[in-house]
Amino acid sequence: MExxxxxxxxxxxxxxxKAEKKKSKKDHQQDLTPQQRNPRxxxxxxxxxLLKLFRDKETSYTISRQNPVEPPPVVVAIVGxxxxxxxxxxxxxxxxxxxxxLANVQGPVTVVAGKNRRLTxxxxxxxxxxxxxxxxxxxxxxxxxxxxxxxxMETFEFLNICQVHGFPRIMGVLTHLDxxxxxxxxxxxxxxxxxxxxxxxxxxxxxxxxxxxxxGEYQKTEVHNLCRFISVMKFRPxxxxxxxxxxxxxxxxxxxxxxxxxxxxxxxxxxxxxxxxRGTHMKNHITVHIPGCGDYSISDMHFLPDPCPSPDREKxxxxxxxxxxxxxxxxxxxxxxxxxxxxYIDLGGSHSHTQADENxxxxxxxxxxxxxxxxxxxxxxxxxxVTMFSGTAPITDGDMEG
Length: 402
Ligand SMILES: Nc1nc2c(ncn2[C@@H]2O[C@H](COP(=O)(O)OP(=O)(O)OP(=O)(O)O)[C@@H](O)[C@H]2O)c(=O)[nH]1
Fold this sequence. Notes:
Helices cover 36% and strands 19% of the residues. It is α/β, with parallel strands linked by helices and 402 residues long. The strands form 7 sheets. Strands 6-5-4-1-3-2-15 form a 7-stranded mixed sheet, sandwiched between helices. Helix 5 (86-98) crosses helix 9 and helix 6 (128-137) packs across helix 7.
């Protein structure tokens, strides 16, 4: 009993330096969030967040090492023999992303494909020089193959060229599958072409099938699937590209003196080219590669605002209609073509409104409807009349003035 009496209850210090220290520590703890107070408890969720961030940004990190602001659009080239369906696929891809129809495809077209991805799509015709240029700069190649014919010489040639500069990502697209009447034969053919494609590119390379056309376009779901692949695809930085600056000119203006051209039509021209800088930084006195032209040293260079900026990186998942930008200065979006100091509206010739051309109808519907108006508005107003009560004389424009 005696021993228990000696046990004193511990009394906290009410004053003095120790008490003050403890008090300030307690106050500080109250200001902290639960995560700051006990970081270990939140370790797992933080790790998840970090991994997600890393997964989303992986592509842009690799490409944007030279350009920390925003990577330029990814270059997608559509390559294939003549009449295989390149232009048709081009138009379908643009329509899928930008919800707009291109009147005629000319020059590269830049579209916003997602929050972190923009695409510059180019069509490559069957010319060997064009193929070499495209193989150098393309990040992704859509290799079109006519299934009813099989692989053509040009396709193999292109694949050989690609090997020189480092292989871009290649996806095969089989068209003209509707030309097979027999389903079994079509499937056999698909299988044969797939294995041939795998031997040429690599085992398991992605091959898409476009099974037929509806109203002059490929089927929407098939194009949509293809586009989804393009939107999420990861790209490797290739050797040639990370060591050279290059500009894919998406717009060109001839600024040479018209008087000089009149006197000497074959004199040298002065042109200005517009495009995103890709590859490495541009330095002074460095030669810049321009696909289709060659290597040039720069005489003058200006920074321009981004004509097709990426959408704001908010948390919303899908793009709004406003964010689905398209930049196609040479192609005539919605029937409009830009020049240096003018804007042209494509009406499809002076007699286009008399011909019922179903294919071109949606592109210039608005302008065509304006052309169909025969009387001006004031004339229509004058001839119109309103009857206020049944049995009374109608009120016309002249009555109002009186
Ligand atoms: N039946 C069928 N016709 C197709 C298919 N793909 C394209 N075509 C048609 O083939 C024709 C040529 O298509 P384009 O898109 O102009 O081909 P292209 O490769 O751009 O042709 P060039 O620019 O001349 O090399 C068009 O009339 C298309 O309608 C397909 O899968 N099936």
